[in-house]
Automatic annotation (TrEMBL), chain A:
GO biological-process terms attached to the record: phosphate ion transmembrane transport
Keyword Transport annotated: yes
Domain ABC transmembrane type-1: 221-427
The keyword Membrane is annotated on this UniProt entry: yes
Transmembrane segments: 35-56, 225-246, 266-286, 292-316, 337-362, 412-431
Descriptive protein name: Phosphate transport system permease protein PstA
Domain of life, source organism: Bacteria
Listed CDD domains: TM_PBP2
GO cellular component: plasma membrane
Subcellular location field: Cell inner membrane; Cell membrane
Keywords on record: Cell membrane, Membrane, Transmembrane, Transmembrane helix, Transport
Automatic annotation (TrEMBL), chain B:
GO biological process: phosphate ion transmembrane transport
Name by which UniProt lists this protein: Phosphate ABC transporter ATP-binding protein (PhoT family)
Residue ranges of domain ABC transporter in the record: 26-268
GO cellular component annotations of the record: membrane
Taxonomic lineage from the root: Bacteria, Pseudomonadati, Pseudomonadota, Alphaproteobacteria, Hyphomicrobiales
C-alpha cells in the first residue's frame, strides 16, 4: 500500500513477476500419467475383446445342432425279427435301429433300397447316435413298435459342419468329407424344411463320445458341480475356522508367524503340485477311486483354502477395533464378540473371498489331470465317487480333437465356463454391495 | 521411584478421609502397567469412592487412560500388556485368576472416546448386553430394560419412534448417549468413561455432562478427560496424572482452587499439557 502511495506513476506491469512454481511441469506429468493409464487399459481391453471375439465367433455355433426330421416306421420285422421281445428284453437293446432311420431317409429322398452305394452314402447323413435315440424311445415305450413316429434325428458331424457352412464346398469332393451327392440331399431336405438347426440340448446332457454330435458337457457339468459343492462344504468351514483362530485367538508368536508365512506361500504354489499331492495322498495312500469328483473336490479344497483364509483374515482385520471394544465393554466373551459382531460384519468379505476362490477352483485344470479326471466318461456320474470329468478338463480334451465339430464345441464349452465364472463373480460383487455395512 | 510410591500410598490413605464419607468402590495399589518393554504406569495408588464422579486428568500419554482401562481389564486385549500391583473391586482382586473377566466387565461398564454403537438397531444396541447376560426372562422384560436404560441416558424421548432403526444413523451426541445406555443396560456398578465428549460438539457435550451428573446417584463413575472445565463441572474428585505417575488426588474443588503440587497448578492453569 505504501509503495503505491509513494509511487503512484508506476505501471501495473512493474509488479514482481509471478514465481515459477513448476505448474506447467506438474500438469504435464499429470497428463502423461493419465495417458499411461489409458494406454494400459486399452491394451487390456484389446486382448479381452480379441479373446472374446475368437471364442464367441468359433463357439456360438456349438449351441445349435443340425437335425433331420424323419418319419420312422418302427418296423417289428427289423427290431424284433424272431418276435422274442416278450421273453428276452435284450432284443430291444440290440436291435438294428440305424437301418430304420436309413430306410426312412431313403423313402423321403426317393433312393431305391437296391442302390447299395447310394444307401451307404445315405447312412452317413445321420449320426450313429440314432441307435441310442431310437432304442431309448422304444425301450421306454415298447407299444410304439409297429407305429410310425416323427423323430428329429441328429445329422452326422460332417453334415452338420457343411450345413453350418464351415466346410469349403468349392474344393473337389474327393478332398472333403461330404460328397456332392450328400450336399444335394442336404439342400433338398433343407428346402423341404426337414433339415434345420435346432438348439443343442445334447451339449449339456451327453457325456464323452468319439462322435462330436453326441458328445457333450453333461458329465463335466455334474463333475464340476460335485467338486464345487465339496470345495464349498470343506473349504468354507475349515478356512473360516482357521482364520478366526489365527486372527482372534492365537497368540502372536514365532509359530503363528511361521503358519502365516506358510499359508501365504501355499496360495502361490502351482496348482499341479496340489494335484501330485492328491495323487500321492488321496489315491495312492488312502486308495480313493481315480477320476472321482470327490478326490478332485478335495484337491481343489487344498488349493482354495489359502485363498479363503487370506480373504477371511483380511475381512476380520477390517472390522474396526471399536466394535470389538464395545462388545467386550458390555461383557461379551471373546467368542460372543467374534460370533455376534465381528463375523457378521466380516461376512461380505468372507463370502466374496469364498466365491472368488470357488471361481478359481472351477477353472482349474492341472491338478485334475493328475488325479485321472481326464478320462473318457460316457455315463453320467451318480455319486461323487463315480468317474467324471470337469468343465476345464473337457475343454482341454476337446481342444486335442481334430474334427471341425470339436473345434466349435471347444469354444462352446469355453463360453459355458466363462458364463459360470461371470455369474459367480457378479454374485460376489452383488453380495458385497448388498451386505457391506458402514460404521 | 520408591519414594514416589510411598508418597502415593500415604496420599491414598489420606484420601480416604477426604472422600466425603463415601465407601471405597475400587482401589488401585501400586499399579504398574507395561506395554511390552515400555512402562506406562509407575506404581499408581488411587481409590475410587462409591457413587461419585472421579475425574482423571493430565497431559496426553500420562497414563490416565491406561489406568482406566486396567479397571475393567480392557488392557487384557492389548498384546504384550502387563499389569502389576493390586486392583480391587469391593475389596476383591480383579486380576485374580479366579475372577471371570466377563463378569467383571458386566460389573464395570465402559464408554469409549468415539461413539461406537454396533451397526444394529437402537433397540438391539441396548438389548445386547442384557441378552448375553440373561438379565431378561422374556421379551417384555427386555423391552422394559431397554426403555429404562434409554430413559436414564435421556435418549428415549428422542428415539422412541425409531427404536428399530440403525444406531449408527444417530447424531454423534445421540450415539454417545446410546453407548451410555448400552453400558447401563447391564446394570453395572461402575462406569468407566474414556474421554466421552472429545468427539462431540459443545451442545452434545453439555447433554452428556448433565447425564453424567444424574448417573452419579446410582453409579460410581470414573471419567478420563482432557478438559479442565469438564473435570471441574462433573467430578467430585480429581486425580492428576503425569508421565505415568499420580501427581495428586483430592476433592475437585480443592484441586482446582488450591492444589498442593506445582505440576498440578501448572497444568490446570495451562502452563503445560
Amino acid at each position: 500500500m505504501t509503495d503505491i502511495a509513494l509511487n503512484p506513476a508506476a505501471p501495473a506491469s512493474a509488479r514482481p513477476a509471478r514465481r515459477d512454481i513448476g505448474l506447467k511441469r506438474r500438469y504435464a506429468a499429470e497428463r502423461r500419467f493419465k495417458l499411461y493409464g489409458i494406454t494400459a487399459i486399452a491394451i487390456g481391453l484389446f486382448f479381452l475383446v480379441a479373446l472374446m471375439y475368437s471364442v464367441f465367433s468359433n463357439g456360438y455355433t456349438a449351441f445349435w445342432q443340425t437335425e433331420v426330421n424323419l418319419a420312422i416306421n418302427l418296423d417289428p420285422k427289423i427290431i424284433d425279427p424272431d418276435n422274442k421281445r416278450a421273453t428276452d428284453p435284450n432284443v430291444l437293446l440290440t436291435a438294428n435301429y440305424p437301418i430304420l432311420a436309413r430306410n426312412a431317409l431313403a423313402e423321403k429322398l426317393g433312393v431305391p433300397a437296391t442302390n447299395k452305394p447310394a444307401m451307404r452314402e445315405l447312412g452317413k447323413l445321420f449320426s450313429e447316435g440314432v441307435r441310442g435315440q431310437l432304442r431309448d424311445l422304444v425301450v421306454a415305450n415298447p407299444s410304439l413298435i409297429g407305429t410310425t413316429q416323427s423323430v428329429w434325428v441328429l445329422t452326422g458331424a460332417d453334415i452338420d459342419s457343411a450345413f453350418k457352412g464351415q466346410i469349403d464346398l468349392t474344393v473337389d469332393q474327393t478332398r472333403r468329407k461330404v460328397s456332392d451327392q450328400q450336399v444335394e440331399w442336404m439342400n433338398k431336405l433343407k428346402g423341404e424344411r426337414a433339415m434345420s438347426q435346432r438348439f443343442n440340448t445334447g451339449l449339456f446332457t451327453y457325456g464323452a463320445s468319439s462322435r462330436p454330435e453326441t458328445s457333450g458337457l453333461g458329465v463335466a457339468l455334474i463333475g464340476s458341480l460335485y467338486m464345487m459343492l465339496i470345495v464349498l462344504c470343506l473349504s468354507l468351514p475349515i478356512g473360516v475356522a482357521a482364520s478366526i483362530y489365527l486372527e482372534e485367538y492365537a497368540k502372536k508368536n514365532r509359530l503363528t508367524d511361521i503358519i502365516e508365512v506358510n499359508i501365504n506361500n501355499l496360495a502361490a504354489v502351482p496348482s499341479i503340485v496340489f494335484g501330485l499331492l492328491g495323487l500321492a495322498v488321496f489315491i495312492n495312500f488312502f486308495h480313493m477311486p481315480r477320476s472321482a469328483s470327490l478326490v478332485g473336490g478335495m484337491v481343489l479344497t487344498l488349493m482354495t483354502l489359502p485363498t479363503i483364509i487370506i480373504a477371511t483374515r483380511a475381512a476380520l482385520r477390517a472390522v474396526p477395533p471399536s466394535i470389538r471394544a464395545a462388545a467386550l465393554g458390555v461383557g461379551a466373551s471373546k467368542t460372543q464378540m467374534v460370533f455376534h459382531h465381528v463375523l457378521p460384519l466380516a461376512a461380505p468379505g468372507i463370502l466374496t473371498g469364498t466365491i472368488i476362490g470357488l471361481a478359481h477352483a472351477l477353472g482349474e485344470t492341472a491338478p485334475l489331470l493328475l488325479i485321472g479326471m481326464v478320462a473318457f466318461v460316457a455315463n453320467s456320474p451318480v455319486t461323487p465317487l463315480d468317474p467324471s470329468t470337469a468343465l476345464p478338463v473337457q475343454i482341454y480334451m476337446w481342444a486335442n480333437e481334430a474334427e471341425r465339430a470339436f473345434v466349435e464345441r471347444t469354444s462352446g464349452a469355453i463360453i459355458v465356463l466363462l458364463i459360470f465364472l461371470a455369474v459367480m463373480n457378479i454374485t460376489a460383487i452383488i453380495l458385497r454391495r448388498r451386505f457391506e455395512r458402514r460404521w | 521411584m520408591n519414594l514416589m510410591t510411598e508418597r502415593n500410598l500415604e496420599k491414598a490413605v489420606n484420601d480416604k478421609m477426604s472422600a466425603q464419607g463415601n465407601a471405597i468402590k475400587m482401589q488401585g495399589k501400586d499399579v504398574t502397567v507395561h506395554y511390552g518393554d515400555k512402562q506406562a504406569l509407575f506404581g499408581v495408588s488411587l481409590d475410587v469412592p462409591e457413587k461419585m464422579v472421579t475425574a482423571l486428568i493430565g497431559p496426553s500419554g500420562c497414563g490416565k487412560s491406561t489406568f482406566l482401562r486396567s479397571l475393567n481389564r480392557m488392557n487384557d486385549t492389548i498384546e504384550g500388556c502387563k499389569v502389576g500391583g493390586l486392583l480391587t473391586l469391593d475389596d476383591e482382586d480383579i486380576y485374580n485368576p479366579k475372577i471371570d473377566v466377563v463378569e467383571l466387565r458386566a460389573r464395570v461398564g465402559m464408554v469409549f472416546q468415539k461413539p461406537n454403537p454396533f451397526p444394529k438397531s437402537i433397540f438391539e444396541n441396548v438389548a445386547y448386553g442384557p441378552r448375553i447376560h440373561g438379565l431378561a426372562k422374556n421379551r417384555q422384560q427386555l423391552d422394559e430394560i431397554v426403555e429404562k436404560s434409554l430413559r436414564r441416558a435421556s435418549l428415549f424421548e428422542e428415539v422412541k419412534d425409531r427404536l428399530h432403526e440403525a444406531g449408527t444413523g444417530l447424531s454423534g451426541g445421540q450415539q454417545q448417549r446410546l453407548c451410555i445406555a448400552r453400558a447401563i443396560a447391564v446394570s453395572p456398578e461402575v462406569i468407566l468413561m474414556d474421554e466421552p465428549c472429545s468427539a462431540l460438539d459443545p451442545i452434545a457435550t453439555a447433554k452428556v455432562e448433565e447425564l453424567i451428573d444424574e448417573l452419579r446417584e446410582n453409579y460410581t463413575i470414573v471419567i478420563v478427560t482432557h478438559s479442565m472445565q469438564q473435570a471441574a463441572r462433573v467430578s467430585q474428585r480429581t486425580a492428576m496424572f503425569h508421565l505415568g505417575n499420580l501427581v495428586e488426588v483430592g476433592d475437585t474443588e480443592m484441586m482446582f482452587t488450591s492444589p498442593t503440587e506445582k505440576r498440578t497448578q501448572d497444568y490446570i492453569t495451562g502452563r503445560f499439557g
